[in-house]
Amino acid sequence: MNERQRLSRPKGEGGLFAIALPLRDDVAKLGYFGETIMKIALRIALSSAGLVAATLCAPAMAQVVTDAGAGEAQFRAVYRELVETNTTLSVGSCTVAAERMAARLRSVGYPDADLHMIVEPDHPREGNLVAILPGSDASIEPMLLLAHIDVVEANRADWERDPFTLVEENGYFYARGSADDKAQAAVWVDLMMRMRQEGFHPRRTIKMALTCGEETAGAFNGAEYLATHHREMIDAEFALNEGAGGLMRDDGTRVMLNIQAGEKFPQNYRLEVINPGGHSSRPVRDNAITRISGALTRIGAHDFAYESNDATRGYFAAMAHLTPGAVGSAMGAFAANPTDTAAADIVAAANPGWNGIMRTTCVATLIEGGHATNALPQRVRANINCRIFPGTSVEAIRQALVGIVADPQVSVTTLETRSPTSAPPPLTDAIMGPARAAAQQIFPDVPLVPLMAAGGTDGAFLTPAGIPTYGFSGFFGTAEGSRAHGLNERMGVQSLMDGRRMLYLLVRDYAD
Predict the structure, then answer these.
(1) Which of 124, 207, 256, 296 is the most exposed place for a label (fewest CB within 10 A)?
(2) pTM of the shown model
């Protein structure tokens, strides 16, 4: 069996994928995410964590690196420079940030032949960087380290601190992008620098892609552009990306660590009613607002059928041991028999997050219509945002919405499609083994629980292009989360340093 087959071969039945973790009592983001995956809550005794740790964590890595946390001052300098380079779509420049990171790599000996600035001519401020550390064994396909360097807009007047000045305070780094996604981007740059400085010669070629455009729907997307126009440059057997972190209690006790494989597909549809209208003093029953209101009510009351895959079955099988009472029992029953709708109903009713990962969901998010307070509406529109379970097509859901609406005067139109759809990448032993080993070395006795995202990352562009992409950071967060996309975004100092150590061990293991 060659290396490609070894890494891409799916695990046997019952292999543990899993998905976003909405656990019952503590609402939280699981550490760090590019886009909100979902909030989670969990009532769990610390003794329970050991139960899953025993089955999910592998022995420590055979190759031990004496100081995975060396060079912290250099890392901090990279992190600060990246965070303090404004990369918002409105006034920032990913190109400047990418050029600065290229300069860092050049300063430690990377030749220009291994540093590639990719700037689409119509988007001069939305540049991307691809860096390469060549491997010694051409028979092993490369690995890719992926991170986006654009950030969500931030208004200084709304923030307690300047959002584009990195501030370390009370155990946290504060700034826009301090978590999403410049923490992981800085780790990758620092890791590539260290390996060059240490004279590390990997068997497997290591590639790094820093991309722009992940945070703004409809904007130029660097990951998509690279996958479409420079596929050979980022070609890899698999990629590591944002998308999963870890959950810890307020006292710093780590509960679980996650690795992401796959994500639901986000898709918007437009409902629209066009009507002749008229004077409001002469009302008729055929009112556009009334019609679309009925359609929205029917969609709101509809539950799509339960679905499952290896990820969801494996997830609920694991979480059944960590969730007390009837809900935990129902999780185990659903994992064993996904046609057990009675068990599925219990789990879905316990938490909206669990419901969201057991089926396709569609919800109204915007509505517009009417043109005057004294006139019957002539046009009314509503946006329906669906999160489609992997394996179902965009058109199939549009047709389902037509049937739910059941009104020929309400049109249902598919809006812009973000990316191709694809099945979740397989969590093979060759992927999970090093992940467990690195995690165990840095976070002993913390269970590693894979997840499937309900939101979206740039993995949505790479996985369909044939580069299976996994989210893994090692960044732990409390129930309050990192405040990504919101005010006063932050990243725990110790969390970042620990994740940096774990990723260093992991990448070296994959590369050797």
Answers:
(1) 124
(2) 0.79
